[in-house]
Recover the amino acids of this structure.
């Protein structure tokens, strides 16, 4: 479907652009194609990839290139055949929100956004209703303890072998991480979720068996704090989420606060490096995870890249040298492998760390220069 | 009123289905079409009856005999306009439901299709009486117990062409039929039987009920008293009807009823030659007619393409403003 956006009729394009740039959570277009069999016509069909419950749902938005001013139709996923957003209440009459369709105004580019957002909100309610219908006392209890959490999403998954499981995306930490980072570049509010998966309908399983747990965060949060490194507290026999969550949140809160304070530790380290190495050519000013210095050994000039882990100073930075004078056969500058076997102690003051690294670099520069001129760089 | 039993099957004749698919695949002015389905609903007696069977549940067979392409009975947000709908239903014809065809989309009912089907199924004023199966031996049973049952227009026939269809010389069209269940507000897939010529379908010919709405041209001038037209409108409709009648008369020239009556009864064998003449004339006329249809179709297509280009031009300039 290699068709470009220039083939989208203008009125449809305006709706889509507004949707993609304003929707929260952000969604993507998975596929777009033309209603024309030979794909030569104008693009008027789109598959949206909508984040839901730490996964994605796919909805097809069907416009008609021949009448781009009319309201599109939506086809939901094959597993959601009972999702009828305008008929959620038992009454036959569609609810008042159907004005989103009848009052469609092609000149207002926010129409599609409003429609999709309404549909997604209804989808949250629909999945909540499905989970509520599951005949499982333990599940009902767990739901009752977390249902008041704002932003909680549930998903009922059915599999080919008739087994079912209920997934929860439990938003953790009622704090605004974005506000804690000065000069925060994130457009999205960063969140950490606990994914909880309960198998249902398996009567032979003991009622107290642990659910599958996994921490998930927005991708951008990794610059500050990686949830992959977190070892989850163990789930004790007979435990429930209401007992588990407060401990986990307390632990995570400490971790996030520490991660925020570590930004300054990294900043001081970069500042300390500037004493022997000079002003950095490039540095990450917000999270201080990267810094590059220009250095010279005699006439040999080279760049020194520092990759500073989020766990710094517990973990030491990786150093990489890059020649400004030597290039490989693809005309790319020759780089060293990431170096971590240099003198280091997490207990040293930043100035001492910088001093020892500078001393190490004086020797290492000569080795790297020799490697460069031999053209044999170990990668 | 009791709910009628669920549909067991939908029967559609090969030519009707072919015509529906043809209509869907040749529409160029839009990427989707929809319209109404007409036909009749009959009781069927399950074939696997046994003596000790306590299961006397009956099922229904819906036979689609015709369709009308028109989306004027609903608006783009899926609300039904009952006045327009009534006008679209020919006299003495039962509405079974509707169909939707959309190019290069998944074969699943959409948001709008759900709304339309759900509303249409609830319109009991458009329901049709379920006929008892005429060739069934258990006639007394079905007619006594079910004569009062009605079938709401709850049929939905979905046509779609696949999204990824790499072969350019083969046109694929998928279809699925559903009955909308008002109680659960859900689509119930129903299998489709295509009635064709062949030994397997002899039963259908045995129970054939003539149903030919042709001519669809409205020459009767009879309207439902529910619809009040302006006098001007009525007059113009009468004129149109008279013109239609004249055109029909030209087509049937040489086949006056008086002459036709000679071909009936015992005298007929004396008129073999004249019978063959008539057949020959008929064939020539049909041939002329098909040529005419082909010619006009080509003209329509040409005009549609022209309109399409103009429309794109207008939209481009409107968007540029």
């Amino acid at each position: 479907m290699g068709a470009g956006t220039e083939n989208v009729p203008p009125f449809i394009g305006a709706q889509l652009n507004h949707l993609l740039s304003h929707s929260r959570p952000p969604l993507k277009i998975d596929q777009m194609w033309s209603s024309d069999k030979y794909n030569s016509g104008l693009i008027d069909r789109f598959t949206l990839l909508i984040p839901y419950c730490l996964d994605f749902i796919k909805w097809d938005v069907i416009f008609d290139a021949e009448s781009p001013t009319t309201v599109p139709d939506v086809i939901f996923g094959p597993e959601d055949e009972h999702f009828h957003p305008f008929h959620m209440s038992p009454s036959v009459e569609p609810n008042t929100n159907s004005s989103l369709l009848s009052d469609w105004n092609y000149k207002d580019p926010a129409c599609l956004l409003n429609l999709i957002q309404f549909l997604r909100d209804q989808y949250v309610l629909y999945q909540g209703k499905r989970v509520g219908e599951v005949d499982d006392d333990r599940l009902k209890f767990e739901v009752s303890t977390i249902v008041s959490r704002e932003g909680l999403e549930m998903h009922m998954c059915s599999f080919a072998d008739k087994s079912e499981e209920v997934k929860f995306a439990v938003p953790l930490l009622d704090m605004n991480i974005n506000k804690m980072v000065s000069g925060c570049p994130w457009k999205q509010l960063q969140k950490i979720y606990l994914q909880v998966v309960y198998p249902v309908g398996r009567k032979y399983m003991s009622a107290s068996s642990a659910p599958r747990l996994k921490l998930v965060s927005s991708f951008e949060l990794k610059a500050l704090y990686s949830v992959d490194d977190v070892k989850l507290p163990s789930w004790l026999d007979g435990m429930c989420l209401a007992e588990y969550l407060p401990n986990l949140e307390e632990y995570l809160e400490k971790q996030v606060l520490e991660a925020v304070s570590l930004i300054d530790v990294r900043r001081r380290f970069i500042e300390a490096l500037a004493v022997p190495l000079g002003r950095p050519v490039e540095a990450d000013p917000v999270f201080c995870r990267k810094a590059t210095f220009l250095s010279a050994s005699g006439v040999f000039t080279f760049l020194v890249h520092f990759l500073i882990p989020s766990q710094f100073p517990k973990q030491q930075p990786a150093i990489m040298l890059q020649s400004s004078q030597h290039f490989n056969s693809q005309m790319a500058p020759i780089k060293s492998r990431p170096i971590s076997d240099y003198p280091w102690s997490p207990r040293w003051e930043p100035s001492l760390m910088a001093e020892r690294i500078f001393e190490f670099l004086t020797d290492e520069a000569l080795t790297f220069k020799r490697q460069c001129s031999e053209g044999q760089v170990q990668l | 009123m009791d709910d009628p039993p669920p549909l067991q099957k939908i029967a559609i004749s090969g030519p009707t289905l072919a015509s529906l698919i043809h209509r869907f695949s040749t529409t160029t002015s839009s990427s989707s079409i929809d319209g109404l389905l007409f036909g009749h609903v009959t009781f069927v007696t399950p074939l696997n009856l046994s003596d000790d069977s306590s299961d006397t549940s009956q099922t229904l067979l819906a036979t689609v005999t015709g369709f009308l392409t028109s989306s004027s009975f609903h608006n783009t947000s899926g609300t039904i306009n009952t006045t327009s709908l009534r006008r679209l239903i020919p006299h003495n014809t039962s509405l079974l439901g509707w169909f939707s065809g959309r190019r290069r989309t998944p074969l699943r009912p959409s948001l709008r299709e759900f709304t339309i089907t759900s509303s249409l199924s609830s319109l009991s004023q458009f329901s049709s009486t379920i006929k008892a199966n005429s060739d069934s031996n258990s006639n007394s049973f079905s007619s006594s117990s079910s004569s009062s049952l009605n079938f709401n227009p709850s049929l939905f026939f979905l046509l779609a062409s696949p999204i990824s269809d790499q072969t350019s010389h083969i046109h694929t069209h998928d279809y699925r039929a559903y009955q909308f269940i008002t109680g659960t507000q859900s689509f119930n897939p129903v299998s489709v039987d295509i009635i064709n010529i062949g030994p397997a379908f002899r039963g259908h010919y045995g129970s054939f009920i003539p149903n030919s709405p042709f001519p669809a041209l409205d020459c009767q001038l009879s309207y439902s008293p529910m619809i009040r037209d302006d006098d001007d409108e009525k007059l113009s409709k009468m004129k149109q009807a008279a013109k239609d009648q004249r055109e029909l008369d030209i087509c049937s020239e040489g086949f006056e009823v008086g002459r036709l009556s000679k071909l009936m009864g015992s005298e007929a064998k004396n008129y073999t030659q004249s019978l063959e003449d008539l057949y020959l004339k008929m064939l020539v006329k049909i041939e002329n007619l098909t040529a005419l249809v082909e010619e006009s179709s080509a003209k329509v297509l040409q005009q549609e393409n022209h309109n399409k280009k103009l429309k794109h031009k207008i939209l481009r300039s409107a968007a540029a403003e």
